[in-house]
Amino acid sequence: MRQYTLQEKYPVYHMSLPFSETSKTSVDEILEHYKQKIEEDDKVAYIATFDHYAHTQGIGGEINPEIKAAKHVVFCFGVKLPSPDVMAVRPRSIGVVQMEDRFEISFLEAPMPVANTAMETWTRALRDI
Question: A Pfam family name for this chain (predicted)?
């Protein structure tokens, strides 16, 4: 798992997952993994799955030809609501992109360490080796 700052402002967690290192064969299978983890935690609520690839294609947007599929699982940890400001960083999502030979998985760092730990653990669990 790599952590970096995207465009000099967005703190991102990222994992490249070669097909040879996971039993998952599609973006949908990976999203099912995340949905299962979300459902197992009574403090996390599943919200939706968003097909970013279909949306971009549907509006005539640009898609890198190396990208075969791209979806987000959207959910919320929201265990407290201390001020209106936290609404700016909720809900959370994890993006999964299928490339020719691998999956690229990424999510923004959450202001809540427990959320980061969970998302990182869920993501690392996709690696079979």
Answer: DUF6858
* Separation CA 67–CA 70 (nearest Å): 7
Domains, the chain: 2-124 (3.30.310)
Tens-digit pLDDT profile for residues 87-110:
988 999 999 999 999 999 999 999
Give the closest residue to 71 by CA, choosing from 92, 55, 58, 88: 55
Q: Compute φ and ψ for 87, nearest 5 degrees.
A: -60, -25
DSSP labels, 3-21: EEEETTTEEEEEEEEEGGG
Query: Residues 6 or more apart from 88 whose CB is under 8 A from it?
Result: none
Strand bridging mode 2-6 / 102-108? unpaired
Threshold 0.90, pTM exceeds: yes
